[in-house]
Design goal:
This protein is an all-alpha fold and 291 residues long. The chain has two domains: 120 residues, Orthogonal Bundle (Cytochrome Bc1 Complex, Chain D, domain 2), CATH 1.10.760; 99 residues, Cytochrome Bc1 Complex, Chain D, domain 2 (Orthogonal Bundle). It has a two-stranded antiparallel sheet with strand order 1-2. Helix 2 crosses helix 8 and helix 12 crosses helix 13. The longest helix has 19 residues. The radius of gyration is 19 Å and the shape is globular. The chain starts with 21 loop residues before the first helix and ends with a helix.
Length: 291
């Protein structure tokens, strides 16, 4: 199965509760709430963006790091870094490059599972809020180990045959690092389908693509294409997005908790329904492409 975990510059802020610098107010909006006007609102929005990107889900509640190998034996030796200790040493530009390109500031160091493939599409306002929020964490815990030098080759040798839901045309069939994933997602974007679908598309590329693929066609990800959205009417799509209920009445279950879970609760209702509207528009567009 496709192994994937959903998992940050900023501009200067005034004192707590003060106005945000004017240039931030002029940036295009992203998730609902990206039009924050105060530092406290920015930090609250940053926490929500962090939840959407899965920062604490991978790195721990205090960003203290987690042993992925303990959870997924295939990934033995890989840790979600204790970023509570590493972030203070990164500039905002270095941190943003890591999030948008999957490139670590340490030369030659590869990173894995970091969802740069999706966070690269965050708006400037969302990115600034995320970085500001992550900077509020105090250093804690111990430094986490780096992946062993043979990590990528070792994991590649153990990949199951269905690692890609569909194999990419790219002949490099191996365990991809975050930079390679970010490149692929950047080069394979779904279409813009009008201003009325701007929010839905934004949610799709930053959140939905983690399970449905860069172009939302299921390529390389476990949940398949969004083409099935064409079969859902308004009420059925609402049930799918808000209650995780599929057309046959069964629920989509989280592989982690065993509870019904389709779309992250960090998205609000407006964002979820906008994504559903875009998904149906995408399915109609995709049907017109002869696929």
């Amino acid at each position: 199965m496709r192994i994937g975990l959903i998992v940050m510059g900023a501009i200067a802020l005034g004192s707590c509760g003060g106005k945000v610098a004017p240039e931030a107010e002029a940036k295009p909006a992203g998730f609902v709430g990206a039009d924050y006007k105060t530092e406290s609102a920015r930090l609250a929005h940053g926490k929500r963006v962090s939840d959407l990107m899965g920062c604490t889900g991978c790195h721990g509640d205090a960003l203290q790091g987690n042993d992925f190998g303990a959870m997924i034996p295939l990934l033995e030796g890989l840790w979600a870094t204790n970023i509570s200790r590493t972030l203070p040493d990164m500039s905002d530009a270095e941190l943003e490059r890591l999030l948008r390109e999957g490139v670590h500031p340490d030369p030659g160091r590869e990173i894995y599972l970091m969802p740069s493939k999706q966070s690269q599409f965050l708006s400037d306002a969302d990115m600034a809020a995320l970085i500001a929020y992550l900077r509020t964490f105090e250093p804690t815990g111990e430094e986490t180990p780096l992946p062993p030098e043979d990590f990528e080759a070792r994991v590649t040798a153990q990949l199951p045959d269905d690692y890609w839901a569909k194999r990419l045309e790219d002949p490099r069939f191996h365990y991809h690092n975050s930079a390679e994933e970010a490149d692929y997602f950047r080069e394979n974007q779904p279409p813009e389908l009008g201003a009325e679908h701007a929010l839905g598309r934004y949610v799709a590329v930053t959140v939905c693509s983690g399970c449905h693929g860069a172009a939302l066609d299921g390529m390389g990800e476990p949940a398949g294409s969004l083409a099935a959205a064409a079969r859902y009417d308004d009420a059925q799509m609402r049930a799918l997005l808000l209650d995780s209920q599929m057309l046959d009445g069964s629920a989509i279950m989280s592989p982690w908790t065993g509870a019904p879970a389709h779309v992250t609760d960090a998205l609000n209702e407006e964002e979820k329904l906008a994504a559903g509207d875009y998904a149906r528009a995408w399915a109609k567009w995709n049907g017109g492409q002869g696929e």
